[in-house]
Structure formats: C-alpha cells, structure tokens
Design a protein that fits this description.
Elements lengths: L4 E4 L13 E4 L3 E8 L14 H18 L7 E8 L2 H6 L1 H12 L5 E6 L12 E9 L1
Parallel strand pairs: 4-5
Antiparallel strand pairs: 1-2, 3-6, 4-6
Helix pairs in contact: 1-3
Length: 137
C-alpha cells in the first residue's frame, strides 16, 4: 500500500467488496484523469460491441495517462464508471473483474458505477467511459 494515500473503511458500514468507501490523501499532488473510452493510439474504437474488450482498452488508456504523469494504477483514489447498459455490465462482471485485477491487482479505489443513456462517443461504438482521480506522491 502506498503511504501517501489510505483507504477509509468505517466500521459502522458493511465491509465493501470490490471498492472502498473513500480514500484519504495524506500528501502529494492530484491528477484528474478525463473520461477515457476504448480508443487506441490511432483513435480507433477497440472492441465494438464487446464491453469486456472495451473495459480492457479503457484501463490501458488510464494506465497510460497515469504513467505520463509519473504515477501508476495504485495511485488512483476515485473512479467513476459510466456504461450504456448496467445489466450487461452485471452479466459480464466476472470477466470485467478478471481484467480489473490485471490492471489494479487488489487496489480498490472509491468507485461509482453510473448507467448513462448516452456517452459522447456512443455513436462511434463506445459502451463505457471511465474517469478518475489519482494522488501521486
């Protein structure tokens, strides 16, 4: 665990599974990661129609942004996930969880999942968008 951030886990709330209730930033600087969609370096949508493939590309994009700022996935303190179809996200949760662990391991920032009626890049085939906040030392 990083020393500049720590999870906030109130004892009066149920033990969270796959997320944290909050994160305390003790020192460092904040990096705000804009909503990332499943586009590759050439701007092409990856995994059209496949939520898991798109989740993987979005995670890779987040990792790229953080690396450019000198950080890594363990520095994330907040993620907001926007999906066009929450039911599909639930159906694919096991597969999404496997991809999640590839990128984040056992690190679970505070997270929110939002079902969206539309995304800016939905017309191009994007099914998911994720934004985040990271605290770097």
């Amino acid at each position: 665990m990083k020393t500049h951030i720590s999870a906030v886990q109130p004892r009066t709330l149920p033990k969270p599974r796959g997320f944290s209730y909050g994160y305390e930033v003790k020192s460092g600087r904040l990096v705000f990661v804009a909503g990332q969609v499943a586009v590759d370096a050439t701007g092409q949508v990856v995994g059209k129609g496949d939520l898991v493939a798109q989740f993987r590309q979005v995670c890779a994009n987040i990792q790229t942004v953080l690396a450019a700022a000198g950080g890594d996935m363990d520095d994330l303190v907040k993620l907001t996930i926007y999906v066009l179809d929450v039911a599909e996200y639930r159906r694919r949760l096991k597969e999404i969880g496997e991809v999640y662990r590839e990128y984040y391991g056992r690190h679970f920032p505070a997270m929110t999942l939002v079902g969206a009626r539309d995304l800016f890049d939905a017309a191009e085939g994007c099914l998911i968008e994720i934004e985040g906040v990271a605290a770097l030392p």
